Amino acid sequence: MDTKANSNAAAPTKKKMGNLTFAIIFIVAVAVIFFLLNLLSGGIFLDGSNIKLILSHSIYPTFVAWALCFLFACGYTDMSLGGVLVLGSFASCLLGNMIGYPGVIIGGLVVGLILVFINFTIFAFTGIPSWIAGISLGLIYEALAVIIKGSKSIGKLVDTDLASEYRALGQLPGSVILLLAAMVVIYFVYNRTTIGLNIRAMGGNKEVARAMGINIVKTLIAVGVICGIIIGVGCIIQQSTNVRTTVKTGLTSMNMVFQPIAVVLLAQILERKINIIIAVPICSFFLYAIFNMLTIMHVPAGTLQDTCLGAFLVLFGIIGNWGYRGIVK
Description:
Blueprint: H1 2-40, H2 48-73, H3 81-99, H4 101-126, H5 130-150, H6 155-158, H7 174-192, H8 194-204, H9 206-211, H10 216-242, H11 255-270, H12 276-296, H13 304-320
Helix pairs in contact: 2-7, 2-10, 2-11, 2-12, 3-4, 3-5, 3-10, 4-10, 7-8, 8-10, 11-12, 11-13
């Protein structure tokens, strides 16, 4: 009896020690990689201004990746989020230049929340596979964005820079403060609330979740609200960081989601040792650092960097599902 009790008591301690060892190895590995990259770049990579640039540009993908965590956790895929980000950024710019910071915040949040809520309402009540509905909605959102941009009355108001005095939420230290505050809230919702548990249960097996008494429709609507708010904040940061948002038709807006997808896939690998909500900003910083290095080495952004991103997606997907038995969704 005592032996069993001692064994149970030792298990959490052993797990903590294993996680601590993993954290130390991970930090050392990243430090070595960054040191080597700094040597290759002639000292540019670890320059203070460049580190600030990496940190600043990794925050927007972090928010999109957090939204994808909830999306993937419930077993759905929505590739229209790029179109939502474009429209939300337009609204943030338009209202921001008109009424200041309240407009920047309200524009991004309202558009992000409404459009993602519409998406999940469609997922919940139509039975259309989410990837099909998402692509269709993405086409609609892109077309709407192009119409708005080409409009004589509104076009000039959205196809312009966000005024410099309203960009603090996309610049240090404001963006980091927003990131840390959001991480606390999102961590709590994902790990410590009933809706967070229901989302993960539904993603594991929808029929089992239904048999357990989980209301699938209500859960999906809740995911829409949560993801909508997170994407709305992503719109604010995206516009505040990049200053101006461009759009084309042909699902080009999906490019805004590919890097966050790579972040989530990498975070899923670390999830065995680090909670995925905490792993996401770490992975976002690391991944953007790699692309920053590619830029320093003059690797073309539109061709070879996209090739690298595609390779990362495949590699992280393979590693993340290594040893999984069954069909990967």
